[in-house]
Amino acid sequence: MRSLCGKAAKRLGHPVKLGCRVPSTPETARRLGTDGVAWAREGLIDLLVPTPFWASCEFDMPIATWRRLLDGTRTTLAGGIEVRYHPFPGAPARHMSAELATGAAMAVLKGGADAVYLFNYFGVGHGLAKQWGAERYNQVVKAMGSIETLDKLPRRHALTYRDVRAPGEPADHALPATGIGCSFRIQTGPKPSPQRKVEVLFELKDVPAKPPRARVNGVRCPNPPRQDDKAFVYTVPAKAFADEAHVIAVEVADGKPVTIVRVEFAVGA
Description:
Blueprint: H1 2-12, E1 19-22, H2 26-31, H3 36-41, E2 47-50, H4 63-70, E3 76-81, E4 84-85, E5 94-95, H5 98-110, E6 115-118, H6 127-132, H7 134-143, H8 147-150, E7 155-158, E8 177-179, E9 181-189, E10 198-204, E11 213-216, E12 219-220, E13 226-228, E14 231-235, E15 244-251, E16 258-267
Parallel strand pairs: 1-2, 2-3, 3-6
Antiparallel strand pairs: 4-5, 7-16, 8-16, 9-15, 10-14, 10-16, 11-12, 11-15, 13-14
């Protein structure tokens, strides 16, 4: 393919670059024969896109690891964002919202990617552009050019899973999670300013008699939470804000195990 691109460049009189999409983690990509790091070091590719395949957008890709592995190469690194939001295999799937897409893009750029790569984000009048509205769609996509422009928009980070694994690799989805206490780590981009409203959301399979307690980076979120059907939404104190990632924990209030089916971290405008 590299040779064909070189021949096409000579025929057309301009560079013809080669990019490839690979599974979201370096080891899985290598095990499946799509060793993007080796290709980049050999000068075979111009663009490398670690990405989920299709089942769900992945909010916790190891972009920082990819960045370190590509140091010293000329390959552009882009993080792939899919159109579907799926907390775990078998859960109801839906399309990404504007806030979720903003959050996924923020995590990609904060991890050190050069760019965001959108898949199945069709233009105005189709798909997400039609759902969000043309103005909102254009605003979000244009903001994906930098951390600074993304940080001006409300964003939402979610717990999902890796939809591509090599043969023999175990499933690694964190949800659903059952217990009297569970904790989760989510990449959340740059530290929110103290003036911004930040919330965490837990959706439970069944609503308990008493709302669970929530902590972010060990800091207790005040009760009572806001309840939306089976979801509980907690305000996060500013002293819990951190850079890059947040550890979110839920604890039951009555000693009876609960099953958590959705976890989100939202940063307001």
